[in-house]
Amino acid sequence: MIHVIAVDDEGPALKRIGKLLESIDDARLIAQFDRPTQCLDYVLTCPLSIDLALLDMEMPGMHGLELAKKLREHRPELHIAFLTAYEDYAREAFDVEALDYLLKPVAEEDLARTFKRLEQRSGLIRGRMADKAVAYGAELLCEVSSFGTFTILSKNGAEVRFRNSKSRELLAFLHYYRGKPVTKSHILDSLWSGKDMDRAQVNLYSTVYQLRKDLETAGLQGIVEQRKTGGGSYILQWPSPIKDDVEQFEQLIAHYKHSNAAASLIKAIQLYGEGFLAGSGYDWAAPRQAELELHFIQLLQSQFNIYIAQHRYDLALHPMRSLVRLLPLDERQHVRMTALFLLTDRRRDARDYFDMISNYLDISENSALNDFDALLENPTAFL
Hints:
Shape: flat
Number of helices: 15
Strand content: 5-15%
Oligomer: single chain
C-alpha cells in the first residue's frame, strides 16, 4: 500500500484529490490538511511510512516550496508532488526534486502519471512487495511486521487474515524465536499458562491447524513445521527471502552507529512506530519490548542532540515529546521540555508545563524544576 498525504487550503480541491485517489490501486490517503503547519506536525510524529505528499503551492502561513523543504529535511525518502493553478513555480518545484507538478484542476490521468513516476523512481508498486531484496538478489516472498500489530504480507501483497487472535499470537511467538524450534511445553506455558494441560494441548493443535489454513489462504505453504524430537516442537520455515521490520530496525541502528548517517537514524525511528507488538498484551514479549524500547530511546536522544546542535529547537520538540512519554519520572527530560518551550517562544506553555510537572513529580531539592526563573533566564543551559 502506498501511503499518501495531501495539503491544500481550498476545501473543494482537497476533496477532489481524495476522490481521485480512490481510483488509484494500492493508494491510501492517510491524512489531509488545510494548513501546512498541521501537515508538518503530523509528518514529524507519524509512526507510519509516508510515500507521497501532494502539496498546494500558494497557502497562507507557509508556501508549498518551504513546506516541501521542511518535510524532506525530516523524511528524506518522502516524494513530493505539487498542486497549483499556476505554472510560475515549475522550476522551483524541480529544484526540490519534486516528483511531479500538477496544474489544477487535477485530472485522473494526471494523478495516474504521478503514480507511474513514483513507481519508476522508488520501486514502489502494488502492496510494497515488489521491493527487490538486493542483498539476496531475489524478489521478496514475504513481509513480516512486528512493530505495532503483528502482520504478514505475502508476495502478492495480500495480508494474512487470522481467524482468531490465538493464531496470530502463535505465529508471532514462533517468529520471535527467528527460525529456532520451540518446544510444545514452552508454547503451552507461554500462551496457555494456568490452563488445564489437556485442554491447553487441544487448543494448541486446533490453533496450529487454523494457523496453517490462514497462511495457505494467503499463498504461504508449509510455513509451520512440526518436529517430534524432544517431546515435540514447532518451527517456522519462512520462504526466503523475507523482509523483517525488527531485523531492518537493528540493521539501521548498526549502520547509524558506524556511519552517523542521519537518514538511518530517522528511518529507524519511523520504523519503530508504536513499538514492538504494541498493544498486543503478550506477556512473553515483555523482555524484547523493553530491549527494543531502550534502543528507541537512545535513537530519540541522538536525534534530539542533533537538532540542539543545529539550534533547531522546534524540531527538537518532537523527539522530546516521545522521551517524556517514555521516561515520565526522569526530571531531566521535563527540564529540557520546558526549556524547549521557552526557546520556541511558547512561554505560556512552558509555565503551564513546569507547574504541571512540579505538582506531578516528587522533585529533588536541587532540580531545575524548582526554579522557573533560572530556566527563563538561560534555557539553553539546561539542554
